[in-house]
Amino acid sequence: MAKYLISFPSAAMVVPEDALGAVGRDAHAVIEEAKAAGVYIFAGGIDEGVPPVLVSADGAVADGGYPWAPPINGGFTVLELPSREEAVAWAARIASACRCSQELRVFGLDPQS
User: Fold this and answer.
1) The domain spanning residue 59 has which CATH number?
2) Burial letters 90-108, b for 16+ CB under 10 A, else e
3) In the prediction, which pLDDT does 85 show?
4) Which of 20, 23, 48, 109 has its CA 20 to 30 A from that of 11?
5) DSSP string across 28-89
6) In a domain, 111, yes or no
7) Any domain includes 112
8) How much is the pLDDT for 55?
């Protein structure tokens, strides 16, 4: 089985303020279904109120991330699934709950990690 990252950037989630409660309930319901199915690894979102830092190999810390890379933000779910088809189906369920499209990627898992 492979681990799949299902994610979206913050800007993709364009939801009216009065719908945010329903989005939260629906998203949590899908996560509970994933847990019940035994495919859930973890989920969450980047805390955009805490700015990133870039830590170099010598331990030096600089404010911000890579200056040439787009910012990383939004929500992330990692599920362990037997096929890409099942991953697409779960991504569609999450997209429906979050009211925005989801990116689907496969982790190249390091067996020693």
Assistant:
1) 3.30.70.1060
2) bbebbbebbbbebebeeee
3) 98
4) 109
5) HHHHHHHHHHT-EEEEEE--TTS--EEE-TT--EEESS-TTSPPP-SEEEEEEES-HHHHHH
6) no
7) no
8) 97
Range of the domain at 39: 2-106
CA–CA gap between residue 81 and residue 14 (Å, rounded): 28
Evaluate whether residue 91 is within a structural domain. yes
Assess if residue 101 is contained within a domain: yes
- With contact defined as beta carbons under 8 Å apart, do 98 and 24 qualify? no
Reading the block at residue 28, the tokens are: 């949590």
- Print pLDDT tens along the chain (113 aa): 999 999 999 999 999 999 999 999 999 999 999 999 999 999 999 999 999 999 999 999 999 999 999 999 999 999 999 999 999 999 999 999 999 999 999 988 777 87
